[in-house]
Design goal:
14% of the residues lie in helices and 19% in strands. With 84 residues, it is α+β, with helices and mostly antiparallel strands. The chain has a four-stranded antiparallel β-sheet with strand order 2-1-3-4. It comes from Linum tenue.
């Protein structure tokens, strides 16, 4: 059982390939980035290597946490001006 109280449920993090998968909570074509044991302690790191939207969801029980609990989020990187 992950850290937390006795009612905690395990979670995993999947990167989803596109907006459609994100909206449908379809983790079948997603890539697992972390399972429920990876989130303890200092967690894990994800590096955004491209300038594109990134979609993430909990993949436990084939996406049930995403569907019912809405455990999903997306990141859209913005360019920023560098001051030297």
């Amino acid at each position: 059982m992950p850290a937390g109280n006795s009612s905690s449920r395990p979670h995993s993090v999947y990167q989803l390939p596109d907006l459609r998968s994100f909206l449908r909570c379809d983790v079948s074509k997603g890539k697992m980035l972390a399972n429920w044991t990876d989130g303890g302690g200092e967690g894990f790191e994800f590096v955004m290597g491209k300038w594109q939207p990134y979609f993430f969801a909990c993949g436990e029980a084939n996406g049930i946490h995403c569907n019912i609990g809405k455990m999903k989020f997306f990141v859209i990187p913005f360019l920023r001006r560098w001051n030297f």
